[in-house]
Amino acid sequence: MNKLLLLFMCLAAIHPCSAQEHKRDPLSDLEIDQLRDAAQEPEVRLKLYVTFARTRLEKMEQARTDPKATDKDQQMLAALQDFTDIYDELDDNVDTFDDRGDDLRKALKPVIEADTEFGSKLRAFRLSLANSPKDLQACDFELGAALDAVDSSAKDHRDLLAEQEVKFKNKKEKSHKGDHGE
């Protein structure tokens, strides 16, 4: 019995579980290179993420409206999952830059505009699927997850911008007082 258990454990260790398999990267090699080049520039890097996320929403809509698509559900789901993954990365980058103490006031403005745009597009996409219950059912969970991510992050981004406005305004005022010997 112990040998059988040992054999099973060895086989389990050799054969990776599906959760451990490599996940497909939603970014192309070119996009990864662009992000790498902008690693230390919050404004450029966050704009790139916004652009990449927007492109995935466009792919999702193209898949929905393509009359020749044979695997429309798969294409829509893949684009939607890629959007969510990229959007989550954008949000993680905002947090990283904030943790570093970077001034994100200028960088957050296009992100906040994109939050509104993305939420509107996702809601419009959901409405467009109302006439196709099969398509809606196929995408509903992922669509809900994407909307939740955008809605919660949009609030966080607005709150962070408000905090940054106060923080960097106070730093500017303090540096001006120090310059004048007060």
Name a few traits of the molecule.
6 helices; elongated; single chain; 80% helix; 182 residues; mainly alpha; 0% strand
Brief sketch in words of this structure:
This protein has 182 residues and is mainly alpha-helical.
Secondary-structure element order, N to C: HHHHHH
Largest sheet: none
Detail the poorly predicted runs.
4-21
What is the residue-averaged pLDDT?
A: 85
Number of helices: 6
Number of strands: 0
Give the CA-CA distance, first to last residue: 82 Å
Coarse structural class: mainly alpha
Our count of domains comes out at 1
The global form is: elongated
Strand content: under 5%
Residues in helices, as a percent range: over 70%
How big is the Rg?
A: 22 Å
Describe it for me?
The chain is mainly alpha-helical and 182 residues long. It has one domain (26-179). 80% of the residues lie in helices and 0% in strands. The protein contains 6 helices and no strands. It is elongated. The relative contact order is 0.10.
Mind sketching the topology for me?
Blueprint: H1 2-14, H2 29-37, H3 42-65, H4 72-99, H5 105-128, H6 133-179
Helix pairs in contact: 3-4, 3-5, 4-6, 5-6
